[in-house]
Amino acid sequence: MRKILIILLSLVLLSACAQSTALIGPAITIGNTGNVMQAAFSYGSNMAIKQTTGKTPGELVTSYMEEKKEKKKIRKEIASYLESHIKIMRKKLSEKK
């Protein structure tokens, strides 16, 4: 019972921290590079991408890669089908001769 109470209390107290975690990435960039302009550009571009697409840059890249993988799979299936169809047609044509 005590653990559940601590977990619930922690969730309530830490729920406001979610908004400030968005600033951790730029803060790390400033700490590593010392370049405030780079951190500001990084944060601004991430926010612009999220407002435009509704997805974070990571989610956007993931969805793009999944779409690309699906298209590649479809192309392979079509190529396989066409190859088998060509073999069948060649066999039929050779039988006619």
From TrEMBL:
Designated name of the protein: Lipoprotein
Species name: marine metagenome
